[in-house]
Amino acid sequence: MIERADLWKSNAKALSLRLRDRFRVAVDRHRRKQPMFSGDGYFSSTFDRLLHRFRDFRRDSLPSSPTFYRKRVSKDFNAEEESVILRMLQAVAVPVLGNACHVFMNGLNHVQVYGLDKLHDALLRRPKDKSLITVSNHVASMDDPLVIAALLPPHVLLDAQNLRWTLCATDRCFSNPVFSAFFRSVKVLPVARGDGIYQKGMDMAIAKLNRGGWVHIFPEGSRSRDGGKTVRSSKRGVGRLVLDADNIPMVIPFVHTGMHEIMPLGASIPRIGKTVTVIVGDPIHFDDLLNVEDAHVSRGKLYDDVSSRIGHRLRQLKVQVDRLALEQANQLHNHPVQCSEQTAGILQQVDWELFGIGSYFSTKDDSSSRQESQIQLKLDDNYTPRPASSLGQTKLNVSDSQELGSHNWYFRMGFSNEGGIVSRIHGYMDPTEIMSFAARGLFMNLRSKEICATC
User: Fold this and answer.
1) Does residue 302 contact residue 293 with C-beta atoms inside 8 Å?
2) Where are the alpha helices (DSSP H) in 186-286?
3) 3-state SS of 66-107?
4) 209: confidence class by pLDDT, cuts 50, 70, 90
5) Please, which residues bridge with residue 43 across strands?
6) What's the predicted TM-score (pTM) here?
7) For residue 396, what pLDDT band results from cuts at 50, 70 and 90?
8) Which residues form the Phospholipid/glycerol acyltransferase domain (predicted)?
């Protein structure tokens, strides 16, 4: 038995020497303490790359671990997939789509923004290596890019490199090759529902943050089911974006209301003539959570604390934006009354004597002034009224005019066929101007009624 043991030992030694000479691999006898294959310079670059691909395939194929940990992502993660052609498409598609959405929101709709300077300062004046995360509520399917484009000036939308990256579900935005090519060209990263927070799409977003980029995310994870009336709790993924980046990014929240009218649930074409109100909040800080990170606190607890703080801030902004939208709607409701009061004041301040019609604007209540400003309903002897069937109205006779006079139904501005304001205004005003003035008044009246119905 001793001889056999020595024989097996010598054979094992000879085999290890042959493996070393054949593959230039140093065989480690302490396999339990150190890995058998280590990158100590003996591998060729091709074999090393194949080994890393096998490890990535095995890691992606396995379900996500329930244990939370900090997963570091390099700046060059997935950089080989960003080809020159894709960057050229992004440089063209992003400015075109962004400016089109900007014109649609600010030209065909009305956007009221509060605190816009906070977003512009964070976007344009932050340090070079400081990344940016913007979070908002998710109401309609086109919140991004419509709301994002409405908040940015046109010259910023032309710089595709510094614009936002966003996340979208693979079953919606990457369901076929055409959609995949389009959404990749407008800087959208794919994420799979149910694959956890350690999937490839989240790693790609963290890689963009490590380069100092801008990532926009909806912490709720999906669209609101009640038309944006409430803000649901935030998911854990936004906590990983904040804590797993190399440098803690700047987090800017904003909340909007009114997008459910532009893009209702189930609609495929956005509406026009609607009002959207947006409020931008102050940056959210996480210094206290970073100080606790060194203590014995689980990683999942830190993710939950970050996401809950972001969700709480969004709910606060939601209350403020609803109050601002209600005040704005009330102001628009009272706008026609204010316009009529201003018009009456202007009419009183005008010196009508210069136009030769001052006698028709009398404020006295005596009988002489009333007779001077009353409508003269004269029936000539040679005038024969048309039958009621042809006019569709009842005939007006002398008794009717006397009845009107007895009840003091008159106009104080002297509208008559022979003279008065109408004939004099016709002399001073072009008919096309009168028609345009009437059209504008009609449009304002219809719009005010629509706003009142919305309220």
Assistant:
1) yes
2) 200-210, 237-243, 259-262
3) CCCCCCCCCCCCCHHHCCHHHHHHHHHHHHHHHHHHHHHHHH
4) very high
5) none
6) 0.62
7) very low
8) 132-259
Please report, rounded to a whole number, the percentage of residues in the chain having pLDDT higher than 70: 62
E strands within 231-342? 250-257, 275-280
* Nearest alpha carbon to residue 166 among 193, 112, 111, 205: 205
CB burial class (10 A; 0-12, 13-18, 19+) of residue 63?
A: exposed
Q: Which two tokens stand for residue 133?
A: 């995360």
pLDDT of residue 187: 94
Among 326, 327, 330, CA closest to 338? 330
- When pLDDT is cut at 50, 70 and 90, the band that residue 30 belongs to is very low
CA 207 to chain centre: 24
Q: What's the Cα-to-Cα distance from 268 to each of 141, 149, 302, rounded to whole Å?
A: 9, 19, 39
Structure tokens at 446: 């219809």
Q: Count the Cβ atoms, other than its own, within 10 Å of residue 368.
A: 9
Residue for token digits 């300077």? 117
* Rounded Cα gap, residues 63 and 274, in angstroms: 45
